[in-house]
Specification:
The protein has about 55 residues and is an alpha+beta fold. It has one domain (about 5-45). It has one helix and two strands; from the N terminus they run αββ. It has one helix spanning about 5-25, and strands spanning about 30-35, 40-45. A hairpin with a 4-residue loop joins β1 and β2 (about 40-45). It is extended and about 45 Å long. It starts with a helix and ends in a 12-residue tail after the last strand.
Length: about 55
């Protein structure tokens, strides 16, 4: 998918208010996932990453 400059600017106009809201109401471990059907706030408690083979 190619995003035009106009589409990028429009997207930013929607995203920035969400980012500002999250900065005021959430801590850095909270992420938002937005798709065409819903928006979800998630909190990362812990992660385990698989190491690359040969490392």
């Amino acid at each position: 998918m190619n995003v035009t400059k106009e589409q990028q600017q429009e997207l930013e106009s929607f995203v920035k208010p969400l980012q500002e809201w999250m900065n005021k109401n959430c801590h850095p471990h909270v992420v938002a996932i937005v798709d065409s059907e819903n928006m979800e706030l998630l909190e990362g408690i812990t992660t385990v990453q698989r190491t690359q083979r040969g490392s």
